[in-house]
Amino acid sequence: MFNTLAQRPDIETATARYEKMLGELRDRLSEQLGPMIWEPSSPMSRAGCSGFSAVKGTESRLLTTWVFRGAIPDDKWDKAVSIAVEVTKPYGFAQPGAMVNRPHDHKIIAFDEYGASYQLTTRVHTVLGLGTGCHLEAHAHPKKST
Question: I need a labelling partner for 34 at 20 to 30 A (CA). Which of 57, 72, 74, 110 fits?
Answer without folding.
Answer: 110
